[in-house]
Amino acid sequence: MKFDIFFSICQTDVDGIIPSERVMWENFFSQALLADSLGFGTAWIAETHLSCQIQKQNPGAVIPHFQGEIGLNTDVLQVAHLLFSQTKRLNIGSAIRNIQCNGGPIAHAEAIRTFLSLHALRKDEKRLLDIGFASGRFPFSNTPYGIFPRNAVEKAAWPVVKTKIFQEATEIFLRFLRGDIFSSKEVRPKILRAKDFRSASDWEKVLTAYGSTQEEILLAPVWTFDKVGVIPFEAPMELLRLTIGCHDLETQIFANSFLPCGVFNLSITPAPQIENTHQAMSKNFNPAGGPWTRSHMPRTVLVFIDEDSRKAQAAGKKALENYWKAIEGTLDPEKVKNAVDNALIGNPEEIVEQMKIRFNPSDRLMLWFDFNNHDNNSVCSSMKLFMDKVARDFI
């Protein structure tokens, strides 16, 4: 079993305290350096764009009851340079990089190739840049960059159009990463068809917006460009590992038609869906990445660990209740129960037993210790306790 770690750098209210940005960053680097010494594989860092607090001033606030910022990191590449200079073994990853905002997929491909070129200047460098990429968690992060319904048809079909825009971004991003030279005319067109929609009535709404009955509706590209070559051309791609953050199987398979891409899942992903993804990707993983393994799908897991099981249970329940209140404004006991069932909570011995029941010995876990916890000493103690008394049973 492989053990990674996830850092949210979430500047939210915990027991009436919202730490300063500087304290949040200091805590993060303290924990990341410890993760390196403890032997974690990849430090996955949450990436967020644009202020949640400011967005609440606009109509349609996505998390109106949330106090603070859902995350402070806006660019994993800058953070990675600092961390790589201070660590010895740790891979650095993004969970997850939005390739649609901040200039779009071309800009992200160019930035990553530049990073890899500089990263490889260190003699005998073998540590990986783990880029998890997706379309972004909140629409307001994409809207300033032109990702919104541009006409009546796109508005009527927006849930489907969003997926097709991400597929467009994915193709552009991955093709430029692997060094292709091409124009937007060579990118697969976005076409709406009846089969894309959950019901016939949904498709009829789109046709009504279009103004006539059609078998297919062609959408204009979001990114239009003449033939482009992304530099640096000699970037060392062997130091890059990719993971796509979406639950749409078609998009996962599409991404793998260009480059090997693992797949993220959340801590609340049902076990049958996880196993179905493993089966599908074993047939569709890009052969350049070798055979598909379970480690190609990092599994996000909340961890509340203490030598005193009662303290761990209380901490887990409190953190999850606070989180759902902040996100939705109300407490949903069923969601808290499901989250508790998916988390690892208890003393080391209890967590070992939970893991034996729930996980495959070949799984790769992305452990989340800083969830709703600004106490740096407490987070570090939990990390040590897990690696000292739990991980040893599975490595």
Under CATH, the homologous superfamily reads Luciferase-like domain
| Shape type | globular
CATH fold call: TIM Barrel
Biggest sheet: strand arrangement: 12-11-6-5-3-1-15-13-14
Structural class: alpha/beta
Number of strands: 15
Oligomeric form: single chain
CATH architecture: Alpha-Beta Barrel
Amount of beta strand:
15-25%
Which residue ranges are poorly predicted, with pLDDT under 50 across at least 5 consecutive positions? Answer: none
The CATH class, by name, is Alpha Beta
Distance between the termini: 6 Å
- How many discrete domains? 1
Structure annotation, total helices: 13
Rg from Cα? 22 Å
Instruction: Tell me the series of helices and strands, N- to C-terminal.
Output: EEHEHEHEHEHHEEHEEEHEHEHHEHEH
What is the residue-averaged pLDDT?
Answer: 94
Largest sheet: 9 strands, parallel
Helix residue percentage: 40-55%
State the main characteristics:
two-stranded antiparallel sheet; 15 strands; alpha/beta; 395 residues; nine-stranded parallel beta sheet; TIM Barrel; 41% helix
Task: Produce a short descriptive summary.
With 395 residues, the chain is of the alpha/beta class.
Report what the structure shows:
There is one protein chain. The relative contact order is 0.14. The protein has one domain: Alpha-Beta Barrel (TIM Barrel), CATH 3.20.20. The chain contains 13 helices and 15 strands. The mean pLDDT is 94.
List the helices and strands and how they pair.
Layout: E1 2-7, E2 11-12, H1 21-38, E3 42-45, H2 52-55, E4 68-69, H3 76-86, E5 91-98, H4 104-119, E6 129-134, H5 152-156, H6 158-177, E7 181-182, E8 190-193, H7 200-210, E9 216-219, E10 228-229, E11 240-244, H8 249-256, E12 261-263, H9 271-284, E13 298-305, H10 309-328, H11 333-342, E14 344-346, H12 348-358, E15 364-368, H13 376-389
Parallel strand pairs: 1-3, 1-15, 3-5, 5-6, 6-11, 11-12, 13-14, 13-15
Antiparallel strand pairs: 2-4, 7-10, 8-9
Helix pairs in contact: 1-13, 4-6, 8-9, 10-11
